[in-house]
Design brief:
The protein is an alpha/beta fold. It has twelve helices and twelve strands. Helix 3 (about 60-65) links the parallel strand 3 and strand 4. Helix 1 (about 15-25) packs parallel to helix 12 and helix 5 (about 105-120) crosses helix 7. The relative contact order is 0.14. Bound molecules: 2-keto-D-gluconic acid.
Length: about 325
């Protein structure tokens, strides 16, 4: 029996590529360059499906140019804002993602950002590396505790809930806004706010965990940032385009925000260069899911979805528009 033929757009972990080679006729990408749209279309010829990542932009135009042999796009990610799911559906192409397996790794990075921003880690690291730390001082490099602070979580899905769980262990009071209120058993005492605006007004630390959609794009903007109490902290491990960079940077420079912690950015990896100059910005290069264990699990989960699809079963992580 012939094996399904796949285009795998990026280099994946070795264990994942070994399973791919065993079960699929897969064209992989050993040199790991990002394929240009024309290249993607050319390489799609004769393939049954794609295994893609958020570095690939699968918009309606590109999807419209794909051969009809392509029947599935399995993404190596939980987020699928890089795929026009509606356009894929219109062409009968299934789309899947990889939820659950990266929840803990991403929640860990959110806590790292919360702590790193609140405790002035970026400035402290810069002082060490640039040999500016000359003496310990009782009043030097003072930051702020997270204990007792109100943590506002936008988007209380799997990752938001995992962040809430960790935050309670650090003594934070959890508040959240979500499209639907969680049931009491899942809330664990977190305070629900019916609107994002109400949540902003009640957050000493704001952590973003919603998907990037037309409704959430630039949700964190000059108007909503102004609702945060003076000295608040903003942390983002979701998607860069949920934040208006201009507004965030201005609020930080003006002292309305004490600090920020970012793992994701608009236009990655070409981030707004001003972020690099701000010592109260604790910055990471999209490391949310970047552990060996998690990236293996994401690859296997994407393969489980492909296996189901080509065996004629409904893939467990099929997403719909
Ligand atoms: C990864 C992510 O960096 O899953 C997502 O949506 O943003 C991150 O886990 C990325 O997906 C790797 O492909």
């Amino acid at each position: 029996m012939s094996r399904p033929s796949l285009l795998v757009t990026r280099k994946l972990p070795n264990a994942v590529e070994a399973r791919l080679a065993r079960d699929y006729d897969a064209e992989t990408n050993a040199i790991d360059t990002i394929l240009k749209p024309d290249d993607l279309v050319a390489r799609a010829k004769g393939k049954d499906g794609f295994l893609v990542t958020p570095a690939d932009r699968l918009d309606a135009d590109l999807i419209g140019r794909l051969p009809s042999s392509i029947r599935i796009m399995a993404s190596f990610s939980v987020g699928y804002d890089h795929i026009d799911v509606k356009a894929a559906e219109a062409r009968g192409i299934a789309v899947t993602n990889t939820p659950d397996v990266l929840t803990d790794a991403t929640a860990d990075i959110a806590l790292l950002l919360i702590l790193g921003a609140a405790r002035g880690a970026a400035a402290g690291m810069a002082a060490i590396r640039e040999d500016r730390w000359k003496n310990w001082a009782p009043t030097g490099m003072l930051s702020t505790d997270v204990r007792g602070k109100r943590l506002g979580i936008i988007g209380m899905g799997r990752i938001g809930q995992a962040v809430a769980h960790r935050a309670r262990a650090f003594g934070m009071e959890v508040h959240y806004h979500n499209r639907a209120r969680l049931d009491a058993g899942t809330e664990h005492g977190a305070v629900f706010h019916a609107t994002a605006e109400d949540l902003f007004a009640a957050s000493d630390i704001l952590s973003i965990h919603c998907a990037s959609t037309p409704e959430t794009r630039r949700l964190v903007n000059a108007k909503t940032i102004a609702l945060l109490p003076k000295g608040a902290i903003v942390v983002n491990t979701a998607r860069g385009d949920i934040v208006d960079d201009e507004a965030l940077i201005s609020a930080l420079q003006a002292g309305h925000l004490r600090a920020i912690g970012l793992d994701v950015y608009a236009n990655e990896p070409n981030i707004d260069p001003r972020y690099r100059t701000l010592e109260n910005a604790f910055l990471l290069p999209h490391l949310g899911s970047a552990t060996v264990e998690t990236r293996n699990a994401m690859g296997f989960r994407a393969l489980d979805n492909l296996d189901d699809f080509f065996a004629g079963r409904e893939p467990r992580d099929r997403v719909r528009s």
